[in-house]
Amino acid sequence: MRANVNVVLVSLLVFLAISSCNGGQLSPVFYRKSCPQLGRIVRNITWSKVAANPTFAAKLLRLHYHDCFVQGCDASLLIDSTDGNTAEKDARPNRSIGGYEVIDEIKAKLEEECPDIVSCADIVALAARDAVSYQFGRSMWQVFGGRKDGRVSLATEAARDLPSGGANYTSLQDQFAGLGLNYIDLVALSGAHTIGVAHCVVFARRLNFTGKGDIDPSLDTAYAEFLKTQCPSRPNPDTTVELDENSSLSFDSNYYVGLRQNKGLLGSDAALLTDRRAAWVARRFQNFHVFMARFGKSMMKMGDIGIKTGDDGEIRKNCRVIN
Ligand code: HEM
Ligand SMILES: *[C@@H]1O[C@H](CO)[C@@H](O)[C@H](O)[C@H]1NC(C)=O
Ligand SMILES: *[C@@H]1O[C@H](CO)[C@@H](O)[C@H](O)[C@H]1NC(C)=O
Ligand SMILES: *[C@@H]1O[C@H](CO)[C@@H](O)[C@H](O)[C@H]1NC(C)=O
Ligand SMILES: *[C@@H]1O[C@H](CO)[C@@H](O)[C@H](O)[C@H]1NC(C)=O
Ligand SMILES: CC(=O)N[C@H]1CO[C@H](CO)[C@@H](O)[C@@H]1O
């Protein structure tokens, strides 16, 4: 009798854990019958792309984030602008987004193997997971399927919905909360900045804080001097700096180590230390296993934002064009 109660309790907890992750709309077995080779195809192409060019990991991860934060995870970010419509991808915060060609290649292969079955939004979620996972040789979190592709993509919404690199803690927390993400998700997902780069213009203000050539007091002084050598006052607009110094190709917890030394590159990174609870979480995430477990969970929550199902969306044939 006691054992039965335990079984029921455990099943209930597992059920709650799963359903709280997907809002009940996405499924871990969504394509099991309709496209069983999906996982293998996405992983194969993503891994070979990242193996050939490790910077794709950051690009594909960021692609999924930008997609989900604007209009929900519906691949609206992949739509190309047309004569009458400036799409999300051409909005200012999107300028340095990349990885579209990887998604195109995966989609083309899937249209050969299971035509009209797999949404671009699900491909983006899978590719982000696989891009990060390549270095570990196994999938680091689960991706559920069932997202439909959206039919709208507007530059104005990208500018409104994506937090800026200079955002303070209050506005970051508000923007995340509006999407169902709490402060732990905010700290965990900011850890994505353990890979990739940022352009000088994004953090230039921290090196000339009040317009008198002074640096942002929340920035480590030696690090600020280093940044000034990388980003002179009129930098080449293409110049970039590693978000996680000396470790921008390795998905690890070094971001949190640097953050606590006031070497978070973006104002939004540094802002995490201005809140007591967030700073405490960031400290815990210096442990890679603690960070990674939560990062996967938060990615699943992020992958659940604004899901479109049924007639709210479509399965695009070409990820760049609405059917
Ligand atoms: C907390 C709010 C966030 C802000 C304000 C923010 C802002 C930025 C900015 C300004 C850049 C540099 C872009 C450039 O100069 O090219 C960047 C890069 C990046 N962001 Fe974020 N981000 C945030 C959250 C996230 C999240 C949630 C993810 C993914 C889960 C993410 C993943 C990345 C990656 C991987 C890069 C490097 C891209 C590359 O190297 O191509 N960011 N972010
Ligand atoms: C993986 O991709 C490569 C080339 O991109 C191809 O040669 C190989 O057959 C693929 N393997 C599987 C198992 O799909
Ligand atoms: C944070 O930024 C928002 C938006 O820019 C601003 O309205 C607010 O006053 C700022 N809060 C603090 C505490 O600086
Ligand atoms: C700092 O900003 C001010 C005002 O925008 C500008 O006049 C000055 O040249 C800048 N200084 C440096 C070192 O970039
Ligand atoms: C990164 O490497 C440079 C050169 O080796 C070194 O001076 C710097 O301290 C390193 N930064 C960190 C955070 O380890
Ligand atoms: C994919 C991409 O980079 N799209 C656009 C982002 O913004 C720049 C500059 O505004 C455009 O040149 C890109 O085509």
UniProtKB/TrEMBL annotation:
Cellular component GO terms held in the UniProt record: extracellular region
CDD domains (alphabetical): secretory_peroxidase (cd00693)
GO MF, one annotated term: metal ion binding
Residues of the signal peptide: 1-23
Cofactor(s) demanded: Ca(2+); heme b
Cofactor binding, per record: Binds 2 calcium ions per subunit. Binds 1 heme b (iron(II)-protoporphyrin IX) group per subunit.
Catalytic site: H66 (proton acceptor)
Gene3D superfamilies given in the database record: 1.10.520.10, Peroxidase, domain 2
Key words, A-Z: Calcium, Disulfide bond, Glycoprotein, Heme, Hydrogen peroxide, Iron, Metal-binding, Oxidoreductase, Peroxidase, Secreted, Signal
Protein task: Removal of H(2)O(2), oxidation of toxic reductants, biosynthesis and degradation of lignin, suberization, auxin catabolism, response to environmental stresses such as wounding, pathogen attack and oxidative stress. These functions might be dependent on each isozyme/isoform in each plant tissue.
Designated name of the protein: Peroxidase
